[in-house]
Amino acid sequence: MLSTGSNIEGRPPNTFKTADAEKGAGSGSDIHREVLASLSSSGHGDKTHRKLKSRHIQLIGIGGTIGTAFYVQIGKGLLNGGPASLFLAFTIWCTFILAITMCMAEMVTYLPISSPFIRFAGRYVDEAFGFAAGWNFFIFEAALVPFEITACNIIIHYWSDAVPVGGIIAITLVIYGLVNLLAVKWYGETEFWAALGKFLLIVGLLIFTFVVMVGGNPLGDRFGFRYWKEPGAFTELYYTGSLGRWLGFLQCLIQASFTIAGPDYVAMAAGEAENPRVVMPRAFNAVFYRLTAFFVLGSLAVGILVPHNDAEMALAFSSGAPGAAASPYVVAMNRLRIRVLPDIVNAMVLTAAFSAGNSYVYCASRSLYGLALEGKAPKALLKCSRSGVPIYCVMIVLCIGLLAFLQVSNNAAVVLSWFVSLVTASQLINYSVTCTAYLRWYAALKAQGISRDTLPYKGLFQPYAGWYGLCGCCVMTFVGGYTVFLPGHWNVPTFLFSYTMIGVCPVLFVVWKIVKKTKFHKAEEIDLYKNLDEVEEYQANYVPTPSRNRFEWVLDWLFG
């Protein structure tokens, strides 16, 4: 998926100089690096700093994607569709994520700026389109913060109810605030270690699945793929027969569209990444392959470990059981009479939930900052601390996190389902926007005579991959809340949370278009060079930051 070029036609010959070409340039002093890091490399008025290393970027991509949905909520997909439906749905959706990743990577590696794909929507399509897309993405990321805080509360109550719900929510928000208001490098380090824990947990659970399925369990039961035969690979949902099995698969596909993400979290860090022209292509490729391997193998493992009609798991979801009690992995451990491991998994899932929420605070605040840079949010939000953190943006996101207090008066499972419905539609709209922006970018390159072979990254199967991703995301956006239209399943909160953003985005688009009198950009008129000089100035003068010690060097080598 990767292609490297030397320069863009019509640009100076040093357009795409890499770090390797620049080794030895400059003094290498700390002062020099500080100046480079604080260059306005992401656009006019951008005061964020490029402090995130390659290992930070790659682990942020994993950390932002893998939360409780992967460890716990995936069990609901198994109940609804069965193991074969779950595996097929996750595998199929990964092909859409591949298409979206290639679209995003090609644009972002060319112009690695703050909140890139949000701003590209305005530059390559229509400023009104960018306005609607930017606020949709902000709402999406901000809504995920209370989702993960709610999850943290549920997980902690797995052990004890001694700490009240409100106390846990408040403590979690304070910690998020401390981590995100520090310099971005400290956020990067925090997220690196938390995401590394998720990585190890996933690998551990996959190894656990293989060991126990071949008989390495207290019962000595070599169950293999038994649950694919009895009670069966597919289950019926709402109706009997083929229709019921199809609806079960569709529910799994909806589950996959919420659970699997990744490229957007990598892209959001582009404006604060060191040496982005070199780091970002590797990060997009690595994150995609790792995540798809985890999600595809994870969906397979879940179907191996637990039958789709397991009473314990069904009860855990229906009653809003605390912690990882509803996790298929914990259910499997209980079925096999394995002790201690469920507590370890619960502790690791708590880390995963906290890490995911931490990433959402980061991405939501940076998306709001990107909107302010483009004049689509109040300019007051551009204020940054001396360490380059947009403090007002972070504080607004933390205030939205207060929505987690809804669970004080509602069943936590109900609150989680509301947030899931809201963010699923927003995420799919965001991916549709990315594909649309890419198709316009592709048309602009062609109209302006720029060869894609000269880009830092050249995606495969374009523009067909862009159309494939766009069509899939658009269809799933409207399908997500289909259950409310089935006889006897009408539910007002579910309808509102599933389709609110589908109605809000066109309104935002129309209002901004009327107020600002914006126009759709013609391919030959799209500005492909805005902010490019700043990025190239940074890239041409980039001096690698040496590892502080041997241990950090090993980490950079392993994950960079």
Average pLDDT number: 81
So what's the overall shape?
Answer: globular
Ends distance: 18 Å
Measured by DSSP, the beta-strand proportion falls in under 5%
Compute the gyration radius: what is it? 23 Å
Annotation field: number of helices:
22
Q: Give start-end ranges of low-pLDDT stretches.
A: 2-44
**Percentage of residues assigned to helices:** 55-70%
Sheet bearing the most strands, described? Answer: none
Along the chain, the helix and strand elements come as HHHHHHHHHHHHHHHHHHHHHH
Label the structural class: mainly alpha
| Total number of strands | 0
Transmembrane segments: 57-74, 86-113, 134-159, 165-187, 199-219, 287-307, 389-409, 415-443, 464-484, 496-515
InterPro entries: AA-permease/SLC12A_dom, Amino_acid_permease_CS, APC_YAT
Domain Amino acid permease/ SLC12A: 56-522
Membrane topology: Multi-pass membrane protein
Structure write-up:
- With 560 residues, the chain is mainly alpha-helical.
- It contains 22 helices and no strands.
- The longest helix has 36 residues.
- The two termini are 18 Å apart.
